[in-house]
Amino acid sequence: EPEVTQTPSHQVTQMGQEVILRCVPISNHLYFYWYRQILGQKVEFLVSFYNNEISEKSEIFDDQFSVERPDGSNFTLKIRSTKLEDSAMYFCASSVGGGRETQYFGPGTRLLVL
Amino acid sequence: SQQGEEDPQALSIQEGENATMNCSYKTSINNLQWYRQNSGRGLVHLILIRSNEREKHSGRLRVTLDTSKKSSSLLITASRAADTASYFCATALTGTASKLTFGTGTRLQVTL
Predict the structure, then answer these.
(1) For residue A10, how far is the Cα from the chain centroid?
(2) Prior bond of A70 cis (ω within 30°)
(3) Alpha carbon A95 to chain centroid distance?
(4) Which of A86, B22, B65, B67 places its Cα 20 to 30 Å from the Cα of B4?
(5) Which residues of A46-70 are buried (b: 16+ CB within 10 A; e: fewer)?
(6) A28 vs A46, A56, B12, B48, CA distance in Å?
(7) CA proximity to A35, closest of B88, B23, B95
(8) Do A37 and A91 meet the contact criterion of CB atoms below 8 Å apart?
C-alpha cells in the first residue's frame, strides 16, 4: 500500500541554523500539507500546497518557513533560522483531493533545536 | 469548547471491552476524520465521515456524526492491547480549502 515517507526521522540542529525536512507524498496525490505537533500538544496545521503554490497557511507559517516541490516526487519544508520553539514533530501529509478527502500522514520528523 | 475537543482525555479499559471516545466541534464541517497515534509515532488514518453521513463502520470501528449537536463518537469494539494509542478527531471546516483542525486527543490504554 502506498504511503507518505519522510526524511530524516530525527534532526538535531543549533538555534539559528537552517533545516530542510523532506517528504515524498503518495504518487497520485495532488494536495500536500505540513503539520507540526509540539510535545504533548495538538497537531497544528502549517501549510497546504496545490498546483505548485501555497493554497492555505496558518499564522505559525511565517517568513521563516517555506515549502517547495523541487521535482515530481519531493515536497520540502524549510525553516530558515530555527528557534528553540520550533522543536516539534513535523508531519507531512497528502491527499488526492482537497479538504474533503482523506489526508494520509507520514511518520514524521522529530526536530530538536538546541 | 475548542474546535475538536475529545472526551475523555484518558480512558483505561480491559481487553475485550468496548471503548467509546467523543469529539465535539464548534463550526460547520465538510467531514470529520479519526486518526490514531502510537506514542511518538505518526498519525494513522482510521475513518472519514462526511457531513451528510450519520454512521460509518470499518472492521471493529464504528463512527457516528451528529451535526445538530456538532459531535462525533468513535467506538472500538472488542478492544485489544494493540489498540493502546492516542485517538484524535480532525475536522475539515466548511469554507476552508484544505486544512484539518485536530482535537486534543483521547489516550486509550487497553490492559490484558
Answers:
(1) 14
(2) no
(3) 14
(4) A86
(5) bbbbbeeeebbbbebbeeebebebe
(6) 22, 21, 39, 19
(7) B88
(8) yes
Are B92 and A33 an interchain contact pair (Cβ–Cβ within 8 Å)?
A: no
Distance CA B75, CA B62 (A): 5
Give the residue among A67, A23, A31, A90 at the shortest CA–CA distance from B98. Answer: A31
d(CA B12, CA A66): 41
**Residue among B50, B88, B100 whose CB faces A45 most closely:** B100
Residue B4's φ and ψ, nearest 5 degrees, are 80, 80
Find the angle CA(B39)-CA(B74)-CA(B47) to the nearest 5 degrees. 80
The verdict on a CB contact (< 8 Å) between A100 and B31 is: yes
Measured distance CA(B55)–CA(B16) in Å, rounded = 22
Please list the pLDDT of chain B residue by residue as tens digits (112 residues): 456 788 899 999 999 999 999 999 998 888 999 999 998 788 999 999 999 999 999 999 999 999 999 999 999 999 999 999 999 999 987 766 678 999 989 999 999 8
Between strands B10-14 and B106-111, the pairing is: parallel
Residue of A87, A100, A109, A112 to mutate, interface with B, max B Cβ within 10 Å: A100
